[in-house]
Design a protein that fits this description.
This protein is of the alpha+beta class. The chain is 33% helix and 14% strand. The strands form 2 sheets. The protein has a 5-stranded antiparallel sheet with strand order 1-2-3-5-4, covered by helices on one side. The longest helix has 20 residues, at 158-177. The structure holds adenine. Residues 31-32, 39, 57, 90, 106-109, 112, 191, 201 line the site of adenine (ADE). ATP binds at residue 59.
């Protein structure tokens, strides 16, 4: 909530250190569309000292954006700056706030979001754990360029999947160490960059914590409530522990090659469903040790859920042996 005009809001966030000159930025094609704005692929000259031209992702608001929407983008920018750099977090590269539309320049992730990637890589004949999942609810690739170049031969093994789980847990451990709570952790909000590096995205978003966002169906029928912990669902209580719960749903998505959680449960029945003790079952290919980690996040009582540090240790132990 602000009383200001867009220009006063912009000047209150202005930071000369981060301003990138518009002349050196080229905006390319649309790669994503959110509730408030657009994401484009683009190139930035000299934004990275190691190369002349860098492929970047550019976030903007719509032309007719309200002051609040502009401020949300600037808030996202300031959270990204505050959080800083980690290999498993989408990093902030710069912004253009002066002399035109506000643009946030972030690291580009070549393979797009993890959910769609996993679905494309699903082994032929893979048996889904979720019931009644129809093929038509799959990839919403309207704006995503599907990359078939250098990655199509290498299929995903269980070890690859568990490495994705570890990378996301490492990024979250870092985010929590910076006192940042994600609130919407899901495979759709993890991006995959070159050499299959997972990057957590959208952690700086100002959340619309009203019922409408969480109950709104996405175009493919998924509802964010299915990633929410009981206390987040019931009394909007978001914390590190509710991120841990969401992470376990994301780990389940990874282990099912982008499966849709609780396909047979309606969004409005989720709270009762969980309160009655129901949980998702072990994906067929998921090792017991990994499912135990996932299940440990499904405690109704927040204090019984592990931390990301503990989960990273357990995942590393599974992957690399005694640590
Ligand atoms: N879609 C949304 N943000 C993106 C990014 N940073 N890289 C690639 N695709 C994206």
């Amino acid at each position: 909530a602000t009383d200001g005009t867009i220009s006063t809001i912009i000047s209150s966030y202005y930071d000369d250190q981060c301003e990138f000159s518009r002349e050196n930025l080229t905006v390319g094609h649309l790669i994503g569309k959110g509730a408030f704005g657009f994401v484009y692929q683009g190139t930035a000259k000299g934004i990275n000292s190691k190369e002349k031209v860098t492929t970047v992702a550019i976030k903007t608001v719509r032309d007719d954006a309200t002051p609040d929407e502009v401020e949300n983008l600037l808030k996202e920018l300031s959270v990204m700056k505050m959080v800083g750099k980690h290999i498993n977090i989408i990093s902030f590269l710069g912004c253009c706030t002066k002399g035109g539309q506000v643009m946030l320049i972030v690291e580009y992730a070549k393979y797009g979001n993890l959910r769609d990637y996993l679905r494309r890589k699903r082994p032929p004949g893979h048996v889904l754990s979720g019931l009644y999942e129809t093929p038509s609810d799959t990839d919403n690739n309207e704006h995503q360029t599907i990359i078939h170049d250098d990655d199509y031969i290498r299929s995903l093994t269980n070890i690859d999947l568990i490495l994705f789980c570890l990378q996301v847990a490492s990024g979250m451990e870092y985010l929590h160490s910076k006192k940042c709570i994600h609130r919407d952790l899901a495979a759709r909000n993890v991006l995959l960059a070159e050499t299959r590096i997972c990057k957590i995205a959208d952690f700086g978003l100002a959340r619309d914590l009203t019922q409408t966002y969480y109950y709104r169906k996405q175009t493919d029928g998924r509802v964010p409530v299915k990633w929410m912990s009981p206390e987040a669902l019931f009394d909007r209580k978001f914390s590190k522990k509710s991120d841990v719960w969401s992470y376990s749903i994301l780990a389940w998505e990874i282990m099912t090659y982008g499966g849709t959680p609780y396909t047979s449960v309606a969004a409005e029945n989720m709270f009762d469903y969980l309160r009655d003790g129901n949980r998702m079952s072990q994906p067929i290919n998921c090792p017991n040790e990994i499912f135990q980690i996932i299940e440990s996040c499904w405690s109704f009582k927040e204090s019984l859920r592990p931390t990301f540090t503990q989960m990273c240790d357990n995942l590393r132990h599974y992957l690399y042996g005694s640590s």
